From TrEMBL:
The organism's taxonomic lineage, starting at the top: Bacteria, Pseudomonadati, Pseudomonadota, Alphaproteobacteria, Rhodospirillales
Keyword check for Transmembrane: yes
Name by which UniProt lists this protein: DUF5652 domain-containing protein
Source species of the chain: Azospirillum thiophilum
Transmembrane segments: 12-33, 40-61
Record keywords, A-Z: Membrane, Transmembrane, Transmembrane helix
Length: 80
């Protein structure tokens, strides 16, 4: 693995890192939007230590799907 990384030009290395980071941001924003939260929360993952706190807060915050009354139906897939 290190031979692969050492054989890359700097621009190739930065391209791979930016693609992985972009994929992480887009996928995380999509998950946040599906959970009913603002996708901009994903920007907190860019800051060290803040990202751990953001994931912890997201895991323990109230979830609209779980907190709705028992008789209320879930939203159809095209509305949520």
């Amino acid at each position: 693995m290190s031979a692969f990384v050492n054989g890359l030009e700097p621009w190739q290395y930065y391209l791979i890192i930016s693609l992985v980071l972009t994929y992480t941001m887009v996928a995380g924003g999509w998950v946040l939007a599906k959970a009913g939260r603002s996708p901009l929360w994903i920007l907190l993952l860019l800051f060290p230590y803040v990202n751990i706190l953001a994931i912890w807060v997201f895991a323990y915050m109230r979830w609209p799907f779980v907190d709705r009354p028992a008789g209320q139906p879930a939203l159809p897939a095209d509305e949520g």
